[in-house]
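Deliverable D4.2, example record:
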Amino acid sequence: MKIRPMALAAVASSMLLVGCTSNTALQQSVDDLSAKVDALSNDVSMMKSDVSDTKDTSQMAYDEAKRANKRIDNMAQSYTK
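Output generated by the structure prediction step:
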């Protein structure tokens, strides 16, 4: 019988404590995390453009090396013993 009033008292006191808490700290944490997510999104988009530029440059270098190898092969074929 004493357990029921004690349980009610515990629930009531916890509800009072929840009502007294402030949401400003929680809101500040959410705002900070949102700012960090936005900064990371900007960094990722910049890196995507850098990767695209690097891919284009590496393809050009590959094509130039392929062309140079063909020229070397053609020069080597023209010489005979």
